[in-house]
Amino acid sequence: MIYNISMKVNSLFENEQAAVLFERFLPGMRDMAQKNPQAAQLSVEQLIRYSRIPQAEEVISAMNAELEKLNTPENAISPSEAKQIAYFRQVDAADKAKAPAMETHHQDAVYPGQPWFDTKGERIQAHGGAVIYEDGTYYWYGENKEHTDGKNGIWTWGLKVYSSTDLCNWEDRGFLIPPVLDDPNSSLFPAKRVDRPHILKCEKTGKYVCWIKLSGAEAAFTIWQADSLLGTYEMVENIYNPGGHKIGDFDLIADAETGKGYLYFDADHAAMVCMELAEDYLHAGREAARSYPGLNPPFTREAPALFASGGKKYMLTSGMTGYVPNRSDAAAASRWDEEFVSVGDPHADDASCASFNSQISKVFRVEGKKNLLIAMADRWLPDYKVDSRIADLFTRVIAGAYAPEQYKATDAEREEMYAANVLETADTSIADYVWLPVSFDGERPRICWKDAWSPEDYE
User: DSSP 3-state assignment of 323?
Assistant: First the structure.
C-alpha cells in the first residue's frame, strides 16, 4: 500500500498510525467516514474537497506529507491486501490446473452484440481493446475480465492478446501483460483498475510502447514497452500523470507521414486534451490542443477513438455515464494537433440513443480494404438494455446535478439511475462486443447496425 492523499479512506483506516493522523487533521470525521460506505470509498483528497474543509489546499498538502512518511517496509502490505494476494494466488493456481482446450470454434462472420468466442470456444477477453496489424496478422488486445464478477475484488486479470488473419476467428495467444499477483502497488495488481490499453510501435527505437489507463484514486497512466509486439513488456512508469492532470479515457495516434505521436485523453473531466509524445513515445510533452472544453457530465467526453480518412482527422467519443452506454459524438479536424469540432452522432438510426448499447474503444483500417474501417466497441452490461427513456433519464439525473433549473428528475428516477449505474459491482466477465463498419455521409462518419457482416463483403 502507498500512503498518500490519493488513497481510499477505508484503506487508510487499516493502519492505526494513519487513522490517528486522519483524526488529527480532520477531527470528528473518522466516525462519520466509517459509518458511511460511500464516504469510505472516496480518496482522502476527495473527502476533504467534498466536505468543504476550511483551507482545504493547506490541509491536503500537509496531510499528504505526513502520510508519505508511513511508506515504510512494514507498512507495504496491509491486512486486506495480504488477503487479496492469497486469493489471487488461488485463482492463478486454478487457472494453471485447467486442462488445455481444443480448437473447436469457427465462424464466417462478425455478429455484433452476440457472445464472441475464440477458436477454442471460450469467450474472448480483450475489452476496452484495440487491434494492431503486423506481417499479415491482426492482433486484438485488451482487458482480461474473465474473473471480474463484481464481487471478488478483481478488476482486470492482466491484458490478453488474440491473433487472426480474417477478423472473424481469433486464436488466444495468452497474456500480453500478465497480472502482478504479489505487489499491491503495481498497476497490474488485479484489484487495480487498469483500462483501455493502446500500443504504438516507435519506428525511431523499434520498441512497442503500451500505455494503459489506471482508473480510481490514481487516475494516471502506466507505461510499458517491449522489443516485440507479443512481449515481454517491461514497466517504464507505474504511475504517470502528464501535466499533473487526473487521467480519464485516452487514445494514441501516430501521424502516418511524420511518425509524430499524439496522446488524446480526458483531462480532469474538463476537456479532451492533445499532447505531443516524446520521440520514443514513452512520455508526453507540450499540450497541443483542447477539444470539448467546459462540459459537465454526462456531456463531458471520454472514450476517444482517433482515425484518419480522406485527408481528414476524426475523433469518436462517448459521454460520461459509467458502464451504462450513451450517445456517441464524432468530431473532425484538419490536423492531429488542433481542436476537433463536432459533426454529430455517428450512429445512424440508433433507437437506443446509446450507441447501439455500446461504447467504442478503437477504430482501425483493414489492410488491403480501402473502404473498410471498423469501430470496435464493448457492450459492458449485456443484460441492461438502454432505450430512449433510460437514456433521457440518465441525462436529466446526471446533468441536473450541474444545471438543476434546466434538467429536472424525480426521486424515483434518481433511485432508478443509481441502481443501474454500476462499476465495481458489474459482472463484466460476460461483456460482449459490438464491431461495426464505419462509412461516410460526406465528411460525417456513419455507423449503421448489422446483425451479421463479413470483412469479405468489402473492397
Answer: coil
- Per residue in 260-292, pLDDT (tens digit) is 999 999 999 999 999 999 999 999 999 999 999
**pLDDT over 90 at 376, yes or no:** yes
E strand or H helix at 56: helix 56-68
As a whole number of angstroms, the distance between CA 160 and CA 178 comes to 8
- Determine which helix (DSSP H) or strand (DSSP E) holds 32, and give its type and residue range: helix 29-35
With contact defined as beta carbons under 8 Å apart, do 121 and 104 qualify? yes
Alpha-carbon span 287 to 210, nearest angstrom: 20
Locus of grid cell 517491461: 234
The 10 Å CB-count burial string (b at 16+, else e) for 427-459 is bbbbbbbbbbbbeeeeeebbbebeeebebeeee
pTM for the full predicted model = 0.93
In percent, the amount of the chain with pLDDT more than 70 equals: 100
What pLDDT does 326 receive? 97
Answer for the pair 280, 261: CB distance below 8 angstroms, yes or no: no
What pLDDT, on a 0 to 100 scale, did the predictor assign at position 76?
Answer: 86
Q: What is the pLDDT of residue 371?
A: 86
CB atoms within 10 A of CB 320: 20
- Contact yes or no for 229/199 (Cβ under 8 A): yes
Cβ–Cβ < 8 Å for 454, 168: yes
Q: Which of 197, 134, 127, 208 is nearest to 376 (CA)?
A: 127
- In eight-state DSSP terms, residue 246 is P
Q: CA of 266: how far to CAs of 73, 76, 295, in Å?
A: 35, 31, 11
Strand partners, 59: none
Amino acid found at 50: Y
Query: Cell 494516471, residue?
Result: 220
Locus of grid cell 494453471: 96
The number of CA neighbours under 13 Å toward the Cβ of 416 is 16
Q: Other CB atoms closer than 10 Å to residue 190's CB: what's the count?
A: 26
Q: What is the pLDDT of residues 120-131, one digit of tens each?
A: 999 999 999 999
Specify the pLDDT at position 31: 87
Q: Which of 160, 217, 209 is nearest to 187 (CA)?
A: 217
d(CA 140, CA 134): 11
**DSSP 8-state secondary structure symbol assigned to residue 455:** G
Q: Where are the alpha helices (DSSP H) in 271-404?
A: 388-400
